[in-house]
Amino acid sequence: MNIHSIRRVKGVMTIGALTASLLGGAAVFASPAAAAYAGHCNINQAASGGVTPGYSITRPAYTSEVGGSRTVNCWMDYGSSGKGVEWLQFTLNSCYGFSLATDGEFGSNTRSALASAQRQENITADGIYGTQSRQYLKFPRYRDITGDRSGCESVN
Known about the structure:
Blueprint: H1 3-22, H2 26-29, H3 32-36, E1 39-40, E2 43-47, E3 55-63, E4 70-71, E5 74-75, H4 83-96, H5 108-120, H6 131-136, E6 139-143, E7 149-153
Parallel strand pairs: 1-5
Antiparallel strand pairs: 2-3, 3-4, 3-6, 6-7
């Protein structure tokens, strides 16, 4: 290694160290999920866009405590809990034939059932609910006029 290469490596290392110290290590420890999603799914949201006309589906969603805005751009994984997990469990039971307890606790049974449903839909079978699961899993479908349950459907 010549002197110019050594100086370049030292310079890059110095810049990296300064950046990490200024950020307080945040760049090193930031969760990819936290950066990509609004938050943990903690509620449900009905949507009619992308499904059969006259029907809507209900998917897990996130609502912020401040302002109360909702988005389906949320995630869940092992250890998550709440209404979003409860709806995912209901969905896995209703649309994929599982017999999960709908207790709102994302444990090993929920993770295994989700991974199996993900395999059925030919998406990444990691047992984590995120963008692909939101788009490709089938969710309970309801008639807009009567509210009657009518099978399952995905938005794609």
